Structures are given as C-alpha cells and as structure tokens.
Automatic annotation (TrEMBL):
<keyword id="KW-0548">Nucleotidyltransferase</keyword>
<dbReference type="InterPro" id="IPR031157">
    <property type="entry name" value="G_TR_CS"/>
</dbReference>
<keyword id="KW-0808">Transferase</keyword>
<keyword id="KW-0067">ATP-binding</keyword>
<dbReference type="InterPro" id="IPR011779">
    <property type="entry name" value="SO4_adenylTrfase_lsu"/>
</dbReference>
<dbReference type="InterPro" id="IPR009001">
    <property type="entry name" value="Transl_elong_EF1A/Init_IF2_C"/>
</dbReference>
<feature type="domain" description="Tr-type G">
    <location>
        <begin position="1"/>
        <end position="222"/>
    </location>
</feature>
<dbReference type="InterPro" id="IPR009000">
    <property type="entry name" value="Transl_B-barrel_sf"/>
</dbReference>
<keyword id="KW-0547">Nucleotide-binding</keyword>
<protein>
    <recommendedName>
        <fullName>sulfate adenylyltransferase</fullName>
        <ecNumber>2.7.7.4</ecNumber>
    </recommendedName>
</protein>
<dbReference type="InterPro" id="IPR041757">
    <property type="entry name" value="CysN_GTP-bd"/>
</dbReference>
<dbReference type="Pfam" id="PF00009">
    <property type="entry name" value="GTP_EFTU"/>
</dbReference>
<dbReference type="InterPro" id="IPR054696">
    <property type="entry name" value="GTP-eEF1A_C"/>
</dbReference>
<keyword id="KW-0342">GTP-binding</keyword>
<dbReference type="InterPro" id="IPR027417">
    <property type="entry name" value="P-loop_NTPase"/>
</dbReference>
<dbReference type="InterPro" id="IPR044138">
    <property type="entry name" value="CysN_II"/>
</dbReference>
<dbReference type="InterPro" id="IPR000795">
    <property type="entry name" value="T_Tr_GTP-bd_dom"/>
</dbReference>
Amino acid sequence: MEVLKIATAGSVDDGKSTLIGRLLYDTKSMTDDKLEAIERTSKQKGYDYLDFSLATDGLVAEREQGITIDVAHIYFSTPSKSYIIADTPGHVEYTRNMVTGASTSQASIILIDARKGVIEQTHRHFFINNLLRIKDVIVAINKMDLVDFSEETYNKIKADFEELMKKRDYQDQNITFIPVSALKGDNVVNRSENTPWYKGQTLLEHFEALDQKDIYNTGTPRFPVQYVIRPKTEDFHDFRGFAGKVYGGELSVGDEVVVLPSMTRSKIKDIYFYNKQYKTAPRRSSVTITLEDEVNVSRGDMLVKVGDLPTIDKQLTATVSWMDSADFTPGGKYVLQHGLNKVLAKVDAIEHKIHPDYSGIEENVTSLQMNDIAKVRLRLNKPIFYDRFKDHRTNGSFIIIDSRTNNTAGVGFIE
C-alpha cells in the first residue's frame, strides 16, 4: 500500500493538533481507549466539545500549555493509502523541529487562522516548505466557523498568500487552498454544507487523489549500497548481490552503471526482491542488484547510470539549518554524514544568514545559533558524490554531527 508522509505547520493555536485529531476521529482511526481519554479530559476541562489536540500532544507541558513542543508522528490508514503525519511545533524557537518534520515529507499542510490571516510565521512556514522542495502544499484556512464561513475572508487570505508565493524560488510546487474547521470537521474528511461557495475537495479527498508523480520530485536514479550479500550456501555459492534502495528514478536489467567512487563500469544482470526477480526497480523500492562483472563494490558505494554521474568533490556550498546549542563557527570541525558515508568537514565560511520570513539576508555573520539558517561553505577530508538538493532531495542533503557529543547538530541542503 502506498504511504504518504505529510508535514504540518502553523502558528501557535492555529489548530494543527486539532486538525490531526479530527482526521483520526472522522476516519475511525482512533482507538477506543484514546477516544475515551479525550472524552474524559474534555469533560474535566469543562469543554462542550471533544479536544482532539489531546490525540497528538503527548507531553505534559504540551497539554498544560495547549501548544505543540516536540514533533509527533501519527499513523492512520484508509482503504487506498497509509498516512504518516508529522505534527510539528509552530514557534520561532522550534524552527529546527519544523525542518526535521518536513525533511522526509512528500506533502505539507500550512494552517492559517481565518481570524488572523497571513502573518510572519506563515512566511516562515512557507519558506521551509520551499527550502525543502515539498511539492504538494495544502493551505488550510482553519477556524472558518469563527468567521461565519465567510467567502470574502477566505478569498482575502488566499490573495495574501498568493502574493507570498511570488517570493519563492521553487516554482514546481502545487498549492491548494481549502477552507476548514478542524474543531467542527468542515471540509476535513467530510464536505461541509457551511461552504456552498467552495467547490474543491476536502483535505482527505485531496490526499487520497494524489498520484506519486504529483508528490515526488524527478531526478536521476541513485543506488547507495547498504549491504553486500554473500550467502555462501551450496545453492548460492557464487552469488554476490548489492542490497539498497533506489532513489530518484528507475533502474532496469541491462542498464550500464558506474560504481562510485571506483568509477568501474558494469551492467545490471538481475534485480531481486526476496525470492522474486524483476526487470525494473522503481523509485523508492528496496532491492538486491547483481552485476554482470566481478567488480569491487562495498557498503557506502553508489551505483549510477553511465552519463548520469553526480558531482564528486571535497568542497561544497550548502544551506544549513543549525540545530545545536553550541554555535556553528568558521573553522569548526564536524562529521558530515552523506547517505551512508561519514567524512570529516571543516567550515570554510558562513557566506550569509537567511531570514526565513523572506525579509532578506544578513551578511558578515560570525556564527550561527540554534534555529539559524545560512548559506555556508564546507571543505571535506575526502570526496563525496552528491547532487544539488533541488535536483535530488536524497543525494543532495546531509546531516552534521558534533564529534564530541555525537549529537546531530545540523542539516544541510547542497546548492
């Protein structure tokens, strides 16, 4: 079954957790004990409605303050799709959490409070979706029940957001506007009678109708080798297969490939999944590949098609989102993990800091603090084989590890 991962973004009290709870409730994906707990807690608080935010806000501090602090992942399914929703906090100080939640998502929901309209945080949330090349974005104009389901209010917010869209540098992005009330359930799963002027799909209808080609960015195939399989059994004494996941495109039997970093060539002989053989391995499939020639291939190597080589270099420029409490400074030394490979990295320079509210850049920056986003130059102790992030989300990204603490200190998107 197809799995769709969705990130959420919204300012404080815009209703992200309530929206997710409503999705779970209306798709009958909520367990009986969870529903009973929500009913009991809502009654204790004196509410005359079910507080669906309790379905996702698991930390005590979140429940006490009525805000989301950490990233929560919520799972539910329909007959046609499985869904993973990353409920991310909307505060400025949790920018790193928003980046983390959206980094592996194929679609995104940006919530806007119909009473407040497009605000500074909306700019920040759209910037992150743009930075991470999220291809399908739903702008859910929430709390329509508090503005009497006004079409005029909806159109005003839509027009303001369309002005914001002019600032993006990623144009291959599908933006859809939906008026909703997460609390009441309007246009979330079921179509609302309160918005006869809205002729589009509900939130769930939109995600159900999404095709893979609408959510995955195109790219050239990349096959990082995760494991070399040598059974050495009587039946498979000479078998030598390379297990991994296909990213960015398709690989087929007969394709001429290059092994990186050795640059040796061969052709794909067979493609296996467990005990079955296939002619083609589609994007995002986990398979085992055998080659026609006895070439040296190890964990961390990469198979790519001849003529579709990535950049192989010891230097790179990237947009970095800094997530650590210790400052990121020129001259600093870190471990850079790109795919399966780890290399030592030194910060050559911070070119400029980027204001994620589209207000511009800041030059002459001497360090980055937690939640800062900046364009930086890095020098590595050995080459890696990478693509630009805008061309290949998987092979164009990396994480930065503090070797002293072993913490993930930042993420980078290669330019």
